[in-house]
From TrEMBL, chain A:
Protein name (record): Cell division protein FtsX
InterPro entries: ABC3_permease_C, FtsX
UniProt key word Lipoprotein: no
Domain ABC3 transporter permease C-terminal: from-to ranges: 171-245
Any single GO BP term: cell division
Native source species: Komagataeibacter swingsii
Pfam families: FtsX
Source species, domain of life: Bacteria
Locations listed in the record: Cell membrane
Membrane-traversing stretches: 20-42, 158-187, 220-242, 276-296
Keyword Transmembrane: yes
Membrane topology: Multi-pass membrane protein
UniProtKB/TrEMBL annotation, chain B:
Organism classification: Bacteria, Pseudomonadati, Pseudomonadota, Alphaproteobacteria, Acetobacterales
GO BP terms, alphabetized: cell division
Protein name per Swiss-Prot or TrEMBL: Cell division ATP-binding protein FtsE
Protein biosynthesis listed as a keyword: no
Keyword RNA-binding: no
GO cellular component: plasma membrane
The entry's keywords: ATP-binding, Cell cycle, Cell division, Nucleotide-binding
Highest taxon in the source lineage: Bacteria
GO MF assignments: ATP binding; ATP hydrolysis activity; transmembrane transporter activity
Length: 308, 223
C-alpha cells in the first residue's frame, strides 16, 4: 500500500501564503533592529559620558610647594589622601609641561611665563561614585584654599539626552511590535476566513481547538521566524556601518578612537559592534517567531469560540 | 444513548430568531434505529444539528452518550464529536482533498497510524464500491458517488451515534438497499442510528421506529 502525504484539509499553504507574512515581519524586524540599535547606542554613549569624561574631577592646590599643616608639601599631602581614598581609581598630577600646555593661550597673551600656578590633579573616580565631597574637609584642613571642580552639568545633560533616546527607542520597539501583532492577527483572520468551511468540518469531526490553533500557530511561527531572520540580516550591514561611524565616540581612549580598522578582519567588526547589539540581532528572529506563534494561538482560539 | 427533554431551538438566537424546534422530548437507547420523518421545514435538519453538536439548543436538556451537552466543556464536546458520525445532506466533502484524504480525515484527527488509516480507507471504499476513485477529487464524482464518500467518512470510525440527513437521496435503489442493510448491521452492533428522510417508499420498505416532526413540533414518537 503506497504511503500518502498527510492532509487534514486545513491547506495552510493556501490560507497563509509564504510570501506576504515573512516580508511584513522582515520589515517590522528591520525597524525593530534599528530602534533597538539606537537604544543600545544611546545606552553606550550615556555610560561613556557618565563614567568617562564626566567622571574626571579636578583638584587645584594653590601654593603646592608650601608646607602642609602636618608634614611635607601641601600637594604631597593632598596626593596622599587622594591615593588612599576609596572610590578613586587614579589621581594624576599634571606636569609643568602639561599645565603650561593647557594654559598656553592665556600665558602667550599675557607674555608672563612666571605666574605662580597651582598644582592640578586629575582625579578619576569609580563608576557611579562621588567620593570627593566627604574628602573636601580633610583637604581643606591640610591645604587651605584647595579647589575641587567637578563640572557634571554637560555630562548630566548628555546622560538625560541619552535616557530620552533610550525611551524613544523602547517606544519605537513597542509600536513596531504592536503593528507586527496586528499584521499577524489580520493575516491569521484572513487565513481562517479562507478555510472556514474546512475548519468547521474538522471541528465537527472532533478536532480540538488546540489542534487547529496549533497548526495555524506553527505555520505563522515559522513564517515569522523566517521574516525575523530576513529583517536581522537586512539590518546587519546598516548596523555595522553605523557602529563603525560611532566607534570614535564610544571608544574609551584616543588611541582606540583613531586606530585604523582592517575591513577584512571579522574580529575587527566584532570589536566595534557592541555585544548587546549582536545578541539583539540573534534574539530578534526567535522573538518574532514566538510573537507570531502566541498571537496566532490567541487569534485562532478566539475565532473558534464562535463555533459550538 | 441520547435524551432530549423539552428542547427548543431558534435559528439566529433565542429572542429574535425563528423557532425551528419547540419542546422536543426524546429518549433513544443504544443500538436503536429511528427514522426521522416530516416534510421540508419540519425541523429534521435542526434536530440532527443539535444531535451532531453543530448548534446548541436554545432551551431544554440534551444528553448524548452520557454527556450533558449544555454543561460540557469544549474539550469534552470535541471528544464527544469523535463518537458521532454524520452524513450531511450537502455531503460537506473538502474539494481540495482527494477522496482518500476526505475519508481518512476523521481517523487522522484521532492521530491513528497512517498504515491503519490506509487499511481502513481501502476497506470502507471497497464496501461503497469506490475503491478505484481514491485519488479523484470530490467535484470529479457524481452526486451519488459523493454521497457514498460522505457515508464512508461518517462510518469509518465506527461511531456510537450515527446521524444521516437524507442519505439515500442521490443513491440508486440497489445502493440504497446496501446502505440500509449496513445501517441495520451497525445498529445490531450497538450503534444508535437516526436517519432523516421524506422518502416514504424507503420507510415502507425498511420499517423501523420513527420520530415524526411537523412545524418544529413532535407529532409522533412511535416504535
Amino acid at each position: 500500500m503506497a504511503r500518502r502525504r498527510y492532509h487534514d484539509g486545513l491547506a495552510l499553504h493556501q490560507a497563509l501564503p509564504g510570501q506576504f507574512l515573512p516580508f511584513l515581519v522582515a520589515a517590522m524586524s528591520f525597524l525593530a533592529a534599528l530602534a533597538l540599535a539606537g537604544g543600545i547606542a544611546a545606552h553606550g554613549l550615556s555610560q561613556r559620558w557618565t563614567h568617562g569624561a564626566g567622571a574626571v574631577t579636578t583638584v587645584q592646590v594653590p601654593g603646592p610647594d608650601d608646607p602642609a599643616a602636618g608634614s611635607g608639601t601641601r600637594v604631597a599631602a593632598v596626593q596622599d589622601i587622594l591615593a588612599h581614598a576609596p572610590g578613586i581609581v587614579a589621581a594624576h598630577r599634571l606636569s609643568d609641561a602639561e599645565l603650561r600646555g593647557l594654559l598656553a593661550p592665556w600665558i602667550e597673551q599675557t607674555g608672563d611665563a612666571s605666574l605662580p600656578l597651582p598644582a592640578v590633579i586629575e582625579v578619576h573616580t569609580a563608576a557611579g561614585q562621588d567620593p570627593m565631597p566627604p574628602l573636601l574637609p580633610r583637604l581643606e584642613a591640610i591645604a587651605p584654599g584647595v579647589l575641587v571642580e567637578h563640572d557634571s552639568v554637560w555630562s548630566d545633560r548628555l546622560a538625560a539626552l541619552a535616557a530620552s533616546l533610550q525611551a524613544c527607542a523602547l517606544l519605537a520597539v513597542l509600536i513596531v511590535m504592536t503593528v507586527a501583532v496586528c499584521v499577524v492577527m489580520a493575516a491569521t483572520r484572513a487565513g481562517l476566513q479562507t478555510r472556514r468551511q474546512a475548519i468547521a468540518l474538522i471541528h465537527s469531526l472532533g478536532a480540538m481547538d488546540s489542534y487547529i490553533s496549533g497548526r495555524f500557530a506553527s505555520r505563522v511561527g515559522l513564517l515569522a521566524l523566517v521574516g525575523g531572520l530576513g529583517g536581522s540580516l537586512a539590518a546587519l550591514p546598516m548596523l555595522l556601518a553605523m557602529s563603525h561611524l560611532a566607534a570614535p565616540f564610544s571608544a574609551m581612549t584616543d588611541a582606540q578612537a583613531t586606530a585604523p580598522m582592517d575591513w577584512r578582519d571579522p574580529r575587527a567588526w566584532a570589536d566595534i559592534v557592541p555585544h548587546a547589539l549582536l545578541w539583539m540581532l540573534l534574539a530578534l528572529p526567535p522573538a518574532a517567531g514566538i510573537t507570531g506563534w502566541v498571537t496566532t494561538q490567541l487569534t485562532v482560539r478566539a475565532w473558534l469560540r464562535r463555533l459550538p | 444513548m441520547f435524551r432530549l427533554h423539552d428542547v427548543s431551538y431558534a435559528h439566529g438566537g433565542n429572542r429574535a430568531g425563528v423557532a425551528a424546534l419547540s419542546h422536543i422530548s426524546l429518549d433513544v437507547a443504544q443500538g436503536e434505529f429511528r427514522w426521522l420523518l416530516g416534510p421540508s421545514g419540519a425541523g429534521k435538519s435542526s434536530l440532527l444539528s443539535i444531535l451532531s453538536l453543530e448548534v446548541q439548543a436554545s432551551a431544554g436538556m440534551v444528553e448524548i452518550l452520557g454527556v450533558p451537552v449544555m454543561q460540557a466543556r469544549r474539550s469534552s464536546l470535541a471528544r464527544l464529536r469523535r463518537r458521532i458520525g454524520t452524513v450531511w445532506q450537502d455531503f460537506r466533502l473538502l474539494p481540495d482533498l482527494s477522496v482518500f484524504d476526505n475519508v481518512a480525515l476523521p481517523l487522522r484527527l484521532q492521530h491513528r497510524a497512517e498504515d491503519e488509516i490506509a487499511h481502513e480507507v481501502h476497506a470502507i471504499m471497497k464496501w461503497v464500491g469506490l475503491e478505484s476513485r481514491l485519488d479523484a477529487r470530490p467535484l470529479q464524482l457524481s452526486g451519488g458517488e459523493q454521497q457514498r464518500v460522505a457515508i464512508a467518512r461518517a462510518v469509518i470510525y465506527r461511531p456510537a451515534l450515527l446521524l444521516a440527513d437524507e442519505p439515500t437521496n442521490a443513491l440508486d435503489e440497489r445502493q440504497a438497499g446496501r446502505l440500509m442493510a449496513m445501517f441495520h448491521r451497525l445498529a445490531e452492533l450497538g450503534t444508535t442510528i437516526v436517519v432523516a428522510t421524506h422518502n416514504d417508499a424507503i420507510v415502507e420498505k425498511y420499517p423501523a421506529p420513527a420520530i415524526e416532526l411537523a412545524h418544529g413540533h413532535m407529532v409522533r414518537d412511535y416504535r
